[in-house]
Amino acid sequence: MMSELGPVIAVVGPSGVGKDSLMLALAQAEPRLSLLKRVITRTPDAGGEEYQAVSEAVFQDLQETGAFALHWQAHGLYYGLPAADLQRQRCEGGGVLVNFSRAVLLEAQALFDPFVVFSVTATPDVLAARLKMRDRETKSEQLLRLARATKPLPDGLLQVIEIDNSGSLDAAVMAAQHALYPPRG
């Protein structure tokens, strides 16, 4: 008997909201979840999430050979979800956490079943403080990111779970776990 595929869990939210921290902590706290390592055309030492760094030429070769379940471009970079890794992780039956772009959520929903969106939020003050603390962008770039933070998700998404990450990471992890796997009793 074939096991049911685990859900693809798209984690989205503005820069500075703590997506990577939440995903890592959630995967460590919940054995039914795993992280998908994306392929990205950025330098290997850029920090943040764990990813496979490739050149644009290598990315195009991978894309042309069908290596990606889904790919997109955002902020001058190319992002790809390795199809073989994603399928293997889903076949193991657990949920697969993936950092997504809002722009491809509807396409992803059409491709993956089950599909869940974690919309990670934080207050504007928290976002501003985190962007300043990580010091990756100029002040004007930070202001642009803060302005984009209120951009809504596309209409038509079937399962969206909002996770507030303004407070402690533990509280956000617990909220996400309870949303995915409600306590029984």
UniProtKB/TrEMBL annotation:
ATP binds at residues 13-20. Residues 6-181 form the Guanylate kinase-like domain. Keywords: ATP-binding, Kinase, Nucleotide-binding, Transferase. GO terms for cellular component: cytosol. InterPro entries: GK/Ca_channel_bsu (IPR008145), Guanylate_kin-like_dom (IPR008144), P-loop_NTPase (IPR027417), PhnN (IPR012699). Its EC number is 2.7.4.23. Pfam families: Guanylate_kin. It catalyses: alpha-D-ribose 1,5-bisphosphate + ATP = 5-phospho-alpha-D-ribose 1-diphosphate + ADP. Pathway: Metabolic intermediate biosynthesis; 5-phospho-alpha-D-ribose 1-diphosphate biosynthesis; 5-phospho-alpha-D-ribose 1-diphosphate from D-ribose 5-phosphate (route II): step 3/3. GO terms for biological process: 5-phosphoribose 1-diphosphate biosynthetic process; organic phosphonate metabolic process. Belongs to the ribose 1,5-bisphosphokinase family. This is Ribose 1,5-bisphosphate phosphokinase PhnN. It comes from Epibacterium ulvae.
